[in-house]
Protein 1
Amino acid sequence: MSDHLSRVRTALGLAAAIAVVGIGLVVPASGPAAAVPDARTEAGTAQRAASSAYSATKTLSRVFVDDQGVPVPQASYDVTVEADQTRNLRGRQRIRISWSGAQPSGGRAATPYGEKGLAQEYPVVIMQCRGVDDASLPLARQLRPETCWTASVAQRSQLLRSEGESTWRRDLYASEADKQALVGTAGLEADECPPLDVTSYNTVLTPFVTRDGTSYPACDIDSMPPEAAVDAAFPPAETAAYTDEDGNGSVSFEVRSDVENESLGCNDKVACSIVVIPIVGLSCQQQATPPTIDDLACRRLGQFPQGSSNAIGAGIDLAVGPGLWWSESNWRNRFTIPVTFGLPPDTCDVLDPRAPTGFYGTELLAQAGLQWSPAYCLNTSRFKFQLNQMSDVAGFRLMESGAGPAAVVSSQQDGGDTPVGYAPTAVTGFAIGYEVDRPKNAGELQNLRLNARLLAKLLSQSYLASDLGRGHPGIGDNPLAIMNDPEFIKLNPGLSDITQEAGATVLSLSNDSDVIHQLTEYIAQDKDATAFLKGTADPWGMRVNPSYKGIDVPRSEWPLLDTYIPETQNTCRKENPSVYFSQVAAPVTTLRKISDALLDAWPNVQTKCDLDAATLKYKVGRVDRQSYGSRFMLGVVSLGDAARYGIKTASLQTRKNKYVGPTDAALTRAVVLSAQKKPRLPFVLDQADVVRDGNAYPGTMVVYTAALLRGLDAETAAKVAQFVRVSTTEGQRRGSGNGQLPAGYLPIKKQGPTGKLFRSAQVVADAIEAQTPAPGPKGEDPAPPPPAAPSSDLPTSDPVVDAPVADAPPAAAPTAAPATVAPVLDVEAAPVAATASEKSGTAGRLLPLLLLAAIVGGLVRLGSRFFVRPPRSLS
Amino acid sequence: MVESHADAASTEVVPVVQPPTPRRQKARAPRAPRAPRPAPQGVGAVVATTSTMVTLVCVWAVLQLLVLSGVAHDREQALLYADFRVQLAETTAPLGPEIAAGAPVAILEIPAIGVEEVVVEGTASGDLLDGPGHLRGTPLPGQRGFSVVMGRAATYGAPFAHLGELRRGDDVEVLTSQGAKTLEVIGVRHEGDPVPAFDDPQAAVVTFVSAEGDGGWLSALTPQTTVYVDAVARESFPTPGGYGLTAPQAEQEMERDTAALPLLALWLALLVGLSVLVVLARQRWSAVLVWTVAGPAAISLAWVATDTGMRLLPNLL
């Protein structure tokens, strides 16, 4: 018996040994490999990386000098740091920084950004600094700790530290001056800082020097630059990032231009750098005998095991923490990534006094327009191009009425009789952007998969969001949020199933947009999703919100239809009764706002209750930012924004078990599938074809420049034609420079699959310039005018929704006529649409029919009295 | 009561003129010799009964839609007016954006076509029974932006029957809790007419919507196409924040409100129940007695059933 047992034990031991070796073989291989396929492999990343990437390797070591004066190496690491793009950056753009070979971190904080990232051991400190790392330059242009941005005092200065905490005074590499009890206080006015000269306490200040030379001593919260104020408009970007147990790590680092942070002051003229300091611990000078408390503290190796968490922010060994990044031991280990910034968004307004020619329309073109416009305004032979963003249909109406020379739209619009040409200008699209963390600090989710029914569930507000939603009639048994939905869990296993209100919705647009139309078209082509919206329960018993049951898809505007107000004892909710699901969905007016919300992981869910202390009244507002490590947020974003800001994008289901993300190949495939019905009209992408094909991305959209083909004056026509020609040739070269095509757009080329778009664009450009309605105007009329427009019942209902909203499109038509002078009754001069009246046969026929029936009935009654009734019996 | 008459019920089916009272006998005396006609049988009976019922129903419906509903409308207006003037005096009248459907929101006067009505919130078919309705999701009339007011063209007082006769320059006066405002009519729009573009961001624009016939001799009774009238005031009252909700489908023009179906079924079931009761009662008591009791109930049931049925019909009728 015991023989048998021991044999089993041996066998188990052997198996375990093999498993360990096996894992050892597999893990190093999978570690770096896992970092490579990034869900953000947007159109263009690869090529951009080749031109502006950064890579460097350094040997970092930690040395303790023992009491005999002999240096003893403690640890040594060959660290390689890489960055994926460094040139022509824009404010808030996120760049990918990755490293390998670093000391694994311990004690991971809930949030690595700013002050909250300080309680970690062996992190990699990444921050943005002004200046160039070159000692030969004048001091003002040099990179120094004083020009590195941090959002809090604790990240810069050590104030009144006792002996056991003053490890920097034992720094092997620091100069004698830097090891004094008071460092950085020279030249301070007496009233600037609280008293710091206290016996047996030590202080180091690392002042911040702004671009214009002002020095902020950073000794308390009032002596910091204005952008570092508590709850500043932008959350801290500098981070103490976590290295995994294999020594690898990566972050998306958000850079700030002088628009976001004027004190730091990075722009196209002021050189800046990103400094990466892998913390390996302080190197310590010769130890005293017996060793002082400082000596011992300097030699500490950390309290937290590798890979552990420190969610409660417990104390750490300062010698291996990020707080002393400025000490010479750490500072000398820096990697400096020089970056350059692109022209600011207002370049054209500043440098070009000419009046701009505004094109009106879709936000999908925003990122391209940002890079294209300097190529026009800085070239005197071209006109001054300006892109004004608004809904597709509003832009089209402006163009039709002559208020705008051209519209940028992404589908055919219903219009009047004047023929309109559509010139393909850019291939891009939309995506479902997400910010999702895997549980247990396993990092960000790199590949999210969604299908049409999940999107239908999110849009139709069929998740309950929280217990408040359970009382909703008809759907009380539905999952609370998408993370609790078995269908979602099946597609994306291994995610946390802790419910968050933000998981019940996808942040979307409140107004009319071609993006919404295409998104709902994707839902409409899917049998399961359509059945769900019509009321069929999904296989797990989830039902559609009755308010959205039978909603017509596709549609270009997604309404808020729910009316359920929860019954609750909560005082705040009783004082502010409101439609709960609408507060959860809270759609916004522009795609950019959705991108910003995703960047900050700050859902637009408006369900947070606050008590206003002054009035003792409750108010309802936006929930807090999500904390790092448990973020979950979805939003509809444009591919341009996703690529610019490093927002990860979900793969959408096409065929069964086939999920397609917005890659170059998938966009190209969709272009191949799209077809043009008539010359000068848009190419139509049928979602049924996309699904049948399987490899095309459903969110692919082509942006067109639409302009009138009749009645445009020659000057305007020439401008529009020039724009079409330049943007389809010069504007299709990929890159981050002026006039180039940013990531997130697929270049239109003369040859290949996009050739048909190019040829169509040239034909339309010629037609716009010529302004001759060549064949008969009727036959060429591109707009088949269906009088019953799909969703706009009332022609005036578009302004109805927009007008009272505070952030209506800024540069809309009203510029044409100054509001103060325009006599109101002259408004008929600029009709924008034709009245489409509703007809109802019932209403028209009801009363006559009732009258007729009454008369006929009466006649029959009379007749029956005389003819049908048997005669009176003659008694 | 039922038990006390149990014997009577078991004896015989009582003919119509069976229990002769002295007074009735005197009245009927000259006609007495004529024997009653025998009841019709077979197809004849069916035709006679059906035509009677059809005639009754249709005559009632026409009567209520064209005449009685006007009375109901006038009564509702009187109540709403009393209600609203108190709210105006107390400055508790609603400002938007979220107002309960059916609440009075404004007083509307269009002297040119003799309209003087209290506007209620909501434009579903049921809301417009009381008077013109304000489309939810749009600012109140007189506030900055684009508001929409709908009204019936043929029934329930037909407040907007003559909307199409307005001319450019006619005055429209609205009174809300923010004050009185006079708007100027820009013009009437039919199918295909250009929608005016409003440049002035300070303007208050009200679009009145109703229906009209095709111009034939029954035009007033056949409101089948929507007609729009735009009126504008250059200066406006401020609009409170929070707009953006779209009104439900049932509140768009020419839409019907299918939510009324269950209620209608209830009223019809009660009508059927009443008929059964009448038939049963007639076997015991005289027609005069039965109809005296059942008549008011039948009329009120028919009234509410028609009112409810009206909600299933297009809202601008």
Protein 2
Amino acid sequence: MTDMLTYPDVVQLAVPGFVALILAEFLWIAWSGRGGRYETRDAVTSLLMGAGNVAAGIALGFVAWGFFMLLWRLTPLNLGPAWWVVVLCFVLDDLRYYWVHRFGHRIRWVWASHVNHHSSQHYNLTTALRQTWTGTFTLMMVVRAPLILLGFHPAMVLFCGGLNLIYQFWIHTEAIGKLPRWIEAVMNTPSHHRAHHGRNPPYLDCNFSGVFIVWDRMFGTFVPELDKDRVDYGLVHNLATFNPLRVAFHEWVGLFRDIARPGLTLRQRLGYALGPPGYSHDGSRDTSARIKAQHLARHPEDAGTPGFEGVRPPAE
Amino acid sequence: MPLSVLVSLVVVGIAGIALLLHLAGRSKRCVLTREDAEAAWQRHFPGDIVEQVTVARDGHAALVLTHLGPGLVWAFGADTVARRLEDFDLIDTGDGLRVEFHDFTASSVSLVLDDFERPHWRNLMRAP
């Protein structure tokens, strides 16, 4: 299939809106004295990461596009451009996003790219733009292959992915509390996504959804934002640099240093690349599962509460 | 959107937001008390037993002695970061010490320490 379909680059078109909403959020915080925090260098780093993400997309976008067009030539299916196909594509692409995002937290190779999005200790609209420069290298484009092979045109799939990204912009804020229950039940909201950005134990590896929070509810990864556990934003081991190059590449550097260590077995090297973040061949580091278990050892009263279902404290 | 317009928008947007935040006082570094420093350390290393905290006179850093050895917590913008003092070099800068970590995520930190503080911190940082 080689027929062409074109859609606007909605992310580029949204850039003026991003800038305007950041200004509006900051002015609201400055005026009201609540609703979040801004710090100059943190915000500038986030914005530079966003600019770098757009530049990387321009420079390396041909890789994913070439792969998708190859699949499009192979598939005998074509669902066409009807509006309901776009809606269906958007929903299925959001399911695709859930799994890519979950892989991004559970597989270090993918985390090396995604980690920079979580590297700010702040949570405001600039954090939404703190995006990866190295997404192409994770090869997560393969997760979109089923959509193309099912007959969704690559341009439509990328258009829906752009809409998904734009949706997720506004949920990176502390200025909005909880929304009406039916919205919180179905949609990803600022409250759900604040929990996702938490570095404190109950919030590790939760709420991977992009637009519809129902995926987390379906796959057992949903944790509500809890009044008793105020979200502490950032990484388990926070970065001590605002340098965008270090932010973009630090986990890749760590990963390649680990797999190149002398004296490891092939299985251990693969563990450092494809195991969960925090994997170590000698148990000297902590995965999210171990951090949760250690928390329960200190706070057994939290056993069975959201974020700790099925978690057991470490054996004595 | 033409690339030239996009680039101009991004450059002006980032510069404008940076200037606005700076003029609005959002560039201040956090100042630590002893209690803040201990809480900051526990935030980064929740399992540690803190035995002693020494805050620099300018309040932008603190030396923390724990049951696992010494560590440093310091102002990182409005927030804090912390590292154990395990693999690092110390350089005397005249008005303080520069700690160079062998860590890609925390290359170095400059501490402002007076003539009295400097040798004291040097000794504590090398504590076993």
